[in-house]
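Hey L., structure's done. Input below.
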Amino acid sequence: MGDDGNMDKMKGKAKEATGKMSGDDRMASEGRTDQAKGKAKEAMSKAKDKAAGMKDSLKDRDNS
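Output:
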């Protein structure tokens, strides 16, 4: 599967840590935003996988 949000979460953590260490509040905030975006992508990916699984199980039921 493609990007399920892990890259955004990792990038966000690094950006937040760098922002905190350098005192750059904007960068730290951007890092938290990137992490939230990654979590949202991850949730969407899980929802899509679950929906596909439900669709497959219904398809299998119809063919029985």
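The mean pLDDT is 89. Residues 12 and 32 are 6 Å apart (CA to CA).

-- N.
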